[in-house]
């Protein structure tokens, strides 16, 4: 099988360009344990067997139980596996995703993630989202202190604008940005351009462009038509489109289904040409 190639994070961690987002390995509403915990552990181990060596999680998934699941399935972690987690969102209930960027909370959250993941250092710790009540300089300043203490190796950010990324990089060396990005959502193009220019990994969340309605036209419809014409799934086409769009991309499709996992990883064998990209973007005859 052709591989998707690799990407280097922080100048030292070389990872396959198709990672795994572990969020779906929770109960309904991203709350609690999965219905079949043993199956979820098997899926994580199978991902590693397939060559996935970047796994993304957060203390908000579960909350907490997703990190614990990863540790139970994979610890002691195989050489070369990068488990990235996030902090800065709290879940007082299943329905709520509240931002908390207070330095004291981020320190507490990081230290709890260290315990759940059973590590002495988190190799990539991502600030999950800016708290509107706390200056991002205060939040990231605390992550910089945790980095100096050796509890964090590299710092990433999530849900940031290009202007916020500029501010963040004045405080700490940002090695990754995790923003929503897919064939139907180009709102982070300016952030992606900065990542490409400066060697920062861009981790698109919601890479499969899921929608409750299937539009009859537009980029998602064109992507679906392209996939059908080549006998591949829409998910595979969406992942392949991201990989082709930028060398900075590190898609992290998530699933709780083993067959879907294998299908997603197999997308690494697809290669989109410039003509394919133009066809999907609707610019081929422009």
Report what the structure shows.
With 286 residues, the chain is of the alpha/beta class. Helices cover 38% and strands 17% of the residues. The radius of gyration is 18 Å and the shape is globular. The protein has one domain: TIM Barrel (Alpha-Beta Barrel). The chain has ten helices and eleven strands. A seven-stranded parallel beta sheet has the order 3-4-5-8-9-10-11, with helices on one face. A two-stranded antiparallel ribbon has the order 1-2. A two-stranded antiparallel ribbon has the order 6-7. Helix 1 packs across helix 2 (65-74), helix 3 (103-117) packs across helix 4 and helix 7 (219-230) packs across helix 8.
Throw out a few tags for this protein.
single chain, 286 residues, alpha/beta, TIM Barrel, seven-stranded parallel sheet, two-stranded antiparallel sheet
Counting DSSP H or I runs of 4 or more residues, the number of helices is 10
Q: Characterize the biggest β-sheet.
A: 7 strands, parallel
Strand content: 15-25%
> pLDDT below 50 for ≥5 consecutive residues: which ranges?
none
Number of domains: 1
The level 1 CATH classification is Alpha Beta
Q: Percent of residues in helical segments?
A: 25-40%
Fourth-tier CATH superfamily name: NADP-dependent oxidoreductase domain
Summarize the structure.
This protein is of the alpha/beta class. It has helices spanning 37-49, 65-74, 103-117, 136-148, 162-169, 189-198, 219-230, 234-245, 258-266, 274-281, and strands spanning 6-9, 13-16, 20-21, 54-56, 82-87, 89-90, 98-99, 122-127, 152-158, 174-180, 201-205. The mean pLDDT is 95.
